[in-house]
Write a structure and sequence with these properties.
The structure is a homotetramer of 116-residue chains. Chain A is of the alpha+beta class. The first copy, chain A, has a single domain (7-115), classed as 7,8-dihydroneopterin aldolase (MptD) (Pantoate--beta-alanine Ligase, Chain: A,domain 2), CATH 3.30.1300.20. Chain A has 3 helices and 6 strands, in the order αβαβαββββ. In chain A, the strands form 2 sheets. A 4-stranded antiparallel β-sheet of chain A has the order 2-4-5-6. In chain A, strands 1-3 form a two-stranded antiparallel sheet. In chain A, strand 5 (94-103) and strand 6 form a beta hairpin. The longest helix of chain A is centred in the first third of the chain and has 20 residues, at 7-26. The mean pLDDT of chain A is 94. Chains in contact: A-B, A-C, A-D, B-C, B-D, C-D. At the C-D interface, helix 1, strand 5 and strand 6 of C face helix 1, strand 5 and strand 6 of D.
Chain lengths: 116, 116, 116, 116
């Protein structure tokens, strides 16, 4: 039978929202090695605006962006394989750490740790 | 100290990812009362493609869309106040039910129930 | 020196807006062969809401979607290489036809014809 | 009967693509007065990556963002009424200037000048 969600479950739900938001807001953004820095900062600061989001770190990998560039157009489109992301969510005393990185050739969002 | 996430916590994380994805993928889409039906179906089927997502129901509210229309342009942009969403996530035997609806004048994503 | 834009130039500007809107609104959407139909319809109807946009046709290519699927996740993310798009814009008596399709391995948005 | 597009028409089409791209890529981004600066820079640098785009200036209006904030959530979602944008496109010797600002209560994208 259904249970009232615990604070730890709520914290994990909030962590997931932030990850889905970050990914689907910014996927497709035109990016080149010259613009990774401003995009990393904007993505982190945008998602840190959301409630319970203590810190976001975005690393867009210049070498993968360079490899992904459409040379006639001169840029790549941001996608999960071009970046690594870490986030810390705090919800009513529970801290959740999450991470997105490549695994088996695909980007994966992972729940790293839940600390009560 | 950090604990290994439980299946229920993983299920809540997955539920959050789906909600953030749906919202930030489709927010801003041009919508009118004539196009709410196709957008509801596409949003539900798109997010149901994601792993562990059993069902998604999207209700874009025609009367609120009609009120939000920019009459010179002839359409509104989809935002949280124009829709209600319900989702069911299944992860390793845990079912999570979530819902987005208006509360106190703002759209809120809620974890409704976690069933082991 | 600057000239006041002609109706044909305005029509081309409007055509470009529709193409950029369609692409960046929907790029990144989770898609599988089972959901291409609903997404095609929703994309076309969404952009047809915009002013001066007479018709939009979106063809998401099932075989390319099937090839692009991340088999652990079970879906692909919509991008330009998975679809072909045609649009007709009418502005004050000028008709503009545009098309996006692959050329030299990359998706290209093209102004096909301007008819006064 | 259809004519081959002129360079000025191509330039206007390119200008429209950039405007639609900027708007629909970034609409919905969580924003607060503390994060307008990084978002303005990232939006401009992202779109400047696109071909023929010489300069983009984005001004997100802190006072309008402050008024739009959902005080329980602590942020607003970026939309056209919260920003002003200017762009310059160069295509084969034609320069196009465009601008988005509020008019009659709604944000409007305008072709300001076409200079051969």
């Amino acid at each position: 039978m259904p249970d009232i969600p615990t604070d730890a479950q709520q914290a994990c739900f909030e962590a997931g929202i932030k990850f889905g938001s970050l990914y689907h807001q910014f996927a497709g953004t035109p990016v080149s090695p010259a613009s990774t820095g401003s995009l990393e900062t904007a993505m982190a600061e945008a998602i840190e605006n959301q409630p319970h989001c203590e810190s976001v770190s975005v690393d867009i990998l210049d070498d993968r962006v360079a490899d992904a560039i459409d040379h006639e157009e001169g840029y790549a489109e941001l996608t999960g394989s071009l970046m690594e992301v870490e986030m810390r969510i705090d919800y009513e005393g529970t801290t959740v750490r999450t991470r997105m990185a490549m695994a088996d050739g695909y980007p994966r969002m992972r729940l790293v740790a839940v600390e009560a």
